[in-house]
Amino acid sequence: MNRFSIGLFAASVAIVTSASATYAAQDTALMQVAANLGYAYNYLGPEDAAALTRPGVTIVIRPGNRLFDVNDRTEAMDGAAPRFALNDLYVSESLVARLRQIATRYPVSNAGDRAIVVTNPVAKERETSVRGAITNLTVTQIAGQQSLAVGGKAPANLPVTLTLIGTFSSELPDVVLSRHLVTADTNGTFNSAIPIASGYYRGAILTLVASSYSGISSAKSSIQAKAPNADVSVPADATPKSIR
Fold first, then answer.
1. pLDDT single digits (tens) 150-184
2. Residue environment code for 91-103, b if the CB has 16+ CB neighbours within 10 A, otherwise e
3. Measured between alpha carbons, how far is 20 from 13 in angstroms, rounded to an integer?
4. Spatial separation of the C-alpha atoms in residues 92 and 18, rounded to whole Å
5. What is the pTM of this model?
6. β pairing state of 216-217 and 132-133
7. Which of 106, 144, 154, 220 could share a disulfide with 57, CB 3.0–4.6 Å?
8. Which among 33, 182, 56, 183 has a CA at the least distance from the CA of 119?
């Protein structure tokens, strides 16, 4: 290796080291922020985003985007946009302060609510090391309701985010309708009933994506939206004889 190659290699190492130091000095790993503030950290595969959840609130943060979701609202953050580095999402101190402020508006009410909240290094280590897949995902529309029955299997005691996506036309982009957090039980089973709101559009394709930690393979299933009682013959729906 000549002197030029050696110098180029050394410069590259210095740049990488400097970049890592910059992340460490100026930004904070979002996973650590979640653990410190009592949020559950969850990777959303369909959106390439991270979700922070605690009872009553879900916050979705995307790399390279200064807009983030707080439940059904979209807000703008101060400072630099989140950046992906060192296998984590790094955020500015101003965003950490916002996340802390939001947490105070949604206090944890009892010990039961804390069951899925990442609050200690042991839980954080498990989140980064656990591996597996979500399987046997089933989605059916509940008769007589504008809701879906969802079930599946995942590694035991892990949080699972259910993201409902609506496809309404070939001319329109997909729409994220809602997100719901459930937890797999000790047998690895999860079940939930989620509304299709606001996708009340007959014939639309509703896709349910189940995701968890970044080491867990997600799963998805799609159905076609139909009337709540589409399979039932109701006399009141018949055309009156007087106008036939």
1. 999 999 988 888 989 999 998 888 888 888 889 99
2. bbeebbebbeebb
3. 11
4. 17
5. 0.61
6. parallel
7. 106
8. 33
